[in-house]
Structures are given as structure tokens and as C-alpha cells.
Amino acid sequence: MARSTKARGQTAAKANQPFLYRHYTPEQLREALRKMYLIRRFEEGAEESYMRGLIHGTMHLSIGQEASAVGICMALTDEDQITSTHRGHGHSIAKGADVKRMFAEFFGKTTGYCRGRGGSMHIADVTKGNLGANGIVGGGIPIAVGAALTAKRLGTGKVAVSFFGDGANNEGAFHEALNMASIWKLPVVFVCENNGYGMSTSVARSTAVPNIADRAAAYSMPGVIIDGNILSKVAEAANEAVERARLGQGPTLIECKTYRYRGHSKSDRNRYRTKEEIEQWMTQHDPISLYEAELREFGVIDEAGIAAIRADVEREIAEGIEYAKASPAPEIADLEQDVYTELA
Amino acid sequence: MNVAVEVKAETGARELTYAQAIQEAMALAMEADERVVLMGEDIGVYGGAFQVTGNLVERFGPERVIDTPISELGGAGVAVGAAVTGLRPIFEFQFSDFATLAMEQIVNQAAKMRYMLGGAVSVPVVMRFPAGSGTGAAAQHSQSLEAWFGHVPGLKVVQPATPHDAKGLLLAAVQDPDPVMIFEHKLLYKMKGEVPEGFYTVPIGKAAVRREGRDVTIVATSIMVQKALDAAATLAGEGIDAEVIDLRTIRPMDRKTVVESVKKTSRLLCVYEGVKTLGVGAEISAMVAESEAFDYLDAPIVRLGGAETPIPYNPDLERATVPQVENILAAARDLVRGAR
Q1: Which residues on chain B are in Cβ contact (under 8 Å) with A153?
Q2: Going by CATH, does the domain composed of B208-337 fall within 3.40.50.920?
Q3: Which of A34, A190, B40, B187 would bridge B92 by S-S if both were Cys, CB 3.0 to 4.6 A apart?
Q4: Distance (Å) from the C-alpha of residue A307 to the closest C-alpha of chain B?
């Protein structure tokens, strides 16, 4: 008797909890934290490797945007597909990529996901449904709609997610793709990570509507605005939109309000925003700190648990960089391989 | 348009128009493979701006013959995304000129995705482009932009010149794992020719010698092939024996067939409708100049291409912008008789 009362009490307590804690197991919630650490430490590891001259080219870091990548991908299966952006490292990790092979790609090695042909801006892991980052703003949006067309036509039950930034919402591809997804009721979710700036130009200066999600109304789909730095809010919105897509009810536009701590790319001199603004986000609204605090509050993890995950991530990052360093460089003779499919 | 079939009693060969041949190829591809879908503007009940898709929507339904909004960039991108994930889309541009609106998806995405991802995907999309002048549609509906696409590694670019090849190259394109761009000349849509029944392919990357000759090699593309053959017939009466090569594919280009021919004839005339400068003929010329055929040349290489102007509206002006039979005749005579 006492036992069943207690069980009922637990059920009632759970019912009052936020969506995330009702929907996911503690293991899954801790894994989400681990992935957020992994993204941040990956970005920092990539940045450091770049500074040391181990990585050439440029890169666009997503530090500060981890909750959006992880929260959205929590609603997806390995079979669901995403298209990503030039700021795509976090999406790749959130979708299940191995940081070893990501580092190897950035180091230009044959063991990298793209065998050293793509680098940061084209990082992909098709086996986990990541159809690739993209160097063209808005380039991945119609491609995600195409993936959703395939899912609907072949009845695979897959959902496609297109990540893009606030800058992409002023590209024609965004508007054309959202319109087609809506008229054909395709299983696709559009995720705008609004970090406030398209390179240096603020959303206020570039965009005629106050919220990107306001544009959903023009395409007769739900437009959802969320605090993109609060994982539980992102995951809840993602689950709702993915369910809607899977049920054949059509697309959703989710706008995650977020912030990037680093500059647009490695050439950014940060002349368009203040130090105070950046510090405010870093100290007051950091997605990882917010999620850690929430997990502690709900008793999902303690300090020792956090320390263990952090240590685990440190080891994974260090091993990833070592793997990349030790991996072989491509043969010049293979330069033209994979321009076309070699027919047997 | 129904695929109305004419059967010649004596030979058993059928005559179809170029448009009918393309339609038949699409129907065969769709019957053979559920993954094949057609996409484009007004290709459903309207039947396509040039009636190439005709009544296919009645046979295969609107789920597989998909009318897109007037969104060339987005539509092309959807086709690319669908191709990467398991469909085999055939995307029709209403006019090849409208590809200018979709270059991002064609050039940055479709052409490069396999390479950028280290071979992890392929992009089996087919794009069809009604191209060329001669319809009085002026500067924005008459261009021959195939050379633009031929400049992009990752794309394959074909220009069928006959109903037979229009069907066979399209069926080859649908089976090809890489993106294939098909430039169909609008004036050829009504051209009739013998087309085998059933499934067959014409290999991409292989030119065809349409007429053998000893005195001059005329390498032509698309509608210029027939003009070259007409010119060759007249030249034969004048004692000039022209070899006519239908290039068929501009990327990858069939170097061997062209080089072997020039080694035999020692003279090269390139005839193409696209703007002459930096066009397909420039590549053919350079290819020959860089080859062992160079030492066989008895005269400078000659290119006949489109004028350095947008296509004008007035029919006489329009005709003057692209090579005509009389231009080919004059060029061939000069080449062979040493006027140059």
C-alpha cells in the first residue's frame, strides 16, 4: 500500500516536470549534456589546432549554440536526415558523428568523413543521416525538402530537418523551399538558428520582420519561437514539429534565438557588436551552464557525474586530435577520384 | 501529346518525333523504376510548355509527375535533395534560360556534392533544358548555355541531335549515378526519325560519325548536326567530301573520335549555336590543337558559332545570329580550297 502510494506520488511528480524530463530517460538526458560538452570542446580543439597551424582554410565555430543542435537532434532517429550550414560542426556531432573522423577531415586526412575533400564547410556523415554542412547560405534548405519528398514518395517514415541561420532567411531558396514543403505537406522541419548576425549585419538591419518565425505565416505553417539556449525548450519544440511531420501534417518553422560567442569566421575583427553583449550571453545565458543547473535541480546529475562526463569528453577530444594527426594524407594521384561515380 | 506511332510496313521501323522519343523514354524509365519522378513547371495537365511530358500525368499520376511552383532554384534543389536520398528525378526547365535562376543548386550542390563528401553520396538527377533560338522568343528564351555547364566538373552534359539519341541519351542519363544535363533544341522537338521500341541507351561521352568523308571534318552539336549534313550533301556535288561528327556529349568530350577524324581529313570546322567566344567550339579546337592531329592540319581550324549578341526578335536578325547551312558551305569551301 505504502509502496503504491509512493509510486503514484512519483508519477504525479513526473507529470509536473517539464517535457524533457517526462520524455527522456536520465541516461538520455546525461548523454545530451555529454554531447553539448563534446561540441564545445570539439570547437575549442579545432580552434586551437587552427591557431597552431594544424588546420588550414577557415572555420565557423558554433560555441554558444550547442543547445539548438543537440535539442533538435534529440527528436530524430539515426534514419532521419539533416542538412546543415557553414556553422555545422555542432549539428554533425549532435547527429552522431565521431569526432575522430571530424578532426581527421579538418586536418585534411583520408580518414576524415570526406576523405579530406570537404573540410569544415562540408562536414557530413551520411550513415547517420547528416547530408552535409554547406558553404552556400540557404543551399541546404531545398535539399532537405528534396529529402522529405523522397521520404513521402517512398513511404520511409523519415523526417528531414534543415538547419540554417538568420542570414539564410533572406535568400530566395528559403522562401521557395518553405513554399514547396507547405503545398506538398512534406515531412520536414525548418530550424533557424538566429544568432543575431549574418556575418556582421544584424537581423534588425537585414530583415523586415522582427522574428524569422513570423515568416512561417506566409507559408501556412506553424512558426515557433523559442529560447534556443534552453535545451528543454528546443527539444520540446523539436519533438512537436517532428511528430507533426511524421504524421503527415506538414512542415514547421522553428526559430531558436541563440548567440555565437566567436566571430563569424577566423577573419572576424568583431567590430559590429560590443564586448558587453558577448559577455552578457556568455555569463548570463550559456546553454551548457543553464542545462547543467537544470539537471542538478531535477536530480539527474551531481557534481561528480558532471566531472566524470567532462573528463570523458576531454579524453575523446584528445584522442580525436591524435587520430587526425596520425592519419595519412591523401595521394595527389587520387585528386580526380569521386568527381564522378566510377562505374564498375 | 500521345505517343502516336507510325510504323513503316517495309522496314518495321517506327518514326517518332524528337519530343515523342523523349516522352517515350520518360515513360519507360518510370515503368521500369518506381523511383523515377518528373518535376517541372506545367508538366502535368498542361503537358509541358513544349508538350514533351504530354499526358504522362494521366498514366503516372500527380505524385510522380509533379508540377512545381515557378521556383527554379528551389525546384532544382528539391530535385537534388531527392536524388541524393533515393529518388531518380527528371527535372524539366521550361526554357534553358531559366537555369540562370538555379545555377546555385546545379553548380554548387549537384555537381560537387559527391566530391565534397568524399564519395559518400551520388546525385542521380537528370535535368532537361529546352534550348536554342529560332522561335521568335527573343533574348531570354532562346539561349544556348550548354558551355556554362560543360565547364563544371561533376556534371555530364549531352545534346541529342536526333529522336533516336534523344531517347537513348535520356535513358542513359536516368541510369547514370551522376547529374546529367540534357540540352534539347526546341526546333528539333518536331523532327521525325527512326526510334527503336523498348529500352536502349546511347552512351554518354561518345560522339557519332554521321557521314564519313575525306576532305574536312565538321564537328557539330545539336541542331547544327542536321545543318552540317545538309551542307555536306551540297558539298558532295561540288567534289568536297565532308565528314560530319555529331558530338552528342560535350562533357565528357569524345576526344578520340574527333582527333582520329581530323587526322584523316586534315581540316576542322566546328559548328555550334552557342556564342562563339569561349564556347563548345573553343574546346573542340583546343583539344585538336593539343593533340597528335595538330601536325596533320592543312589549314587553320575554323569555328562557326553564335554571334556576339543576345538573340534578337526580328526573324531575319535572329537567323543571322546562328550558323546556317550557307555559312557552313562557305566555311567548308574556304577551308578545302585554301581560300584562307
Answers
A1: 37, 63-64, 82, 87
A2: yes
A3: B40
A4: 36
Please report the domains of chain A, with CATH numbers, ordered by start residue: 65-266+273-326 (3.40.50.970)
State how far the Cα of A41 lies from the Cα of A34, in Å rounded to an integer. Answer: 10
DSSP label at A213?
A: G
What is the pLDDT averaged over residues A263-288?
93
Is the distance from CB of B93 to CB of B149 less than 8 angstroms?
no
- B156-158 and B249-251 as β-strands: parallel, antiparallel, unpaired? antiparallel
Beta bridge partners of B88: B36
Cα dihedral: B25, B30, B36, B38 (round 10): 70
| pLDDT of A343 | 72
Q: How far apart are alpha carbons A186 and A141 in whole angstroms?
A: 13
Range(s) within chain B of domains with CATH label 3.40.50.970: 6-194
Taking a C-beta distance cutoff of 8 angstroms, is the pair B42, B67 a contact? yes
Q: Give the C-alpha separation, A114 to A109, whole Å.
A: 9
Chain segment B232-261, per-residue pLDDT in tens: 999 999 999 999 999 999 999 999 999 999
Ranges of CATH 3.40.50.920 domains, chain B: 208-337
Segment A180-236, tens digit of pLDDT = 999 999 999 999 999 999 999 999 999 999 999 999 999 999 999 999 999 999 999
Chain A nearest C-alpha distance from B93 (Å): 16
Q: Could you give the angle at the alpha carbon of A137 between the alpha carbons of A191 and A100, nearest 5°?
A: 75
pLDDT computed for residue B322 by the predictor: 98
CA atoms within 13 A on the CB side of A15: 6
Question: d(Cα A247, Cα A76) in Å, to the nearest integer?
Answer: 14
Mean pLDDT of B279-301: 98
CATH number of B6-194: 3.40.50.970
Q: Does A7 touch chain B (CB under 8 A)?
A: no
* Per-window interface: A 125-144 vs B, CB < 8 A: 126, 131-132, 134-136, 139, 141-144
Query: Do A45 and A103 meet the contact criterion of CB atoms below 8 Å apart?
Result: yes
DSSP annotation of A218 = G
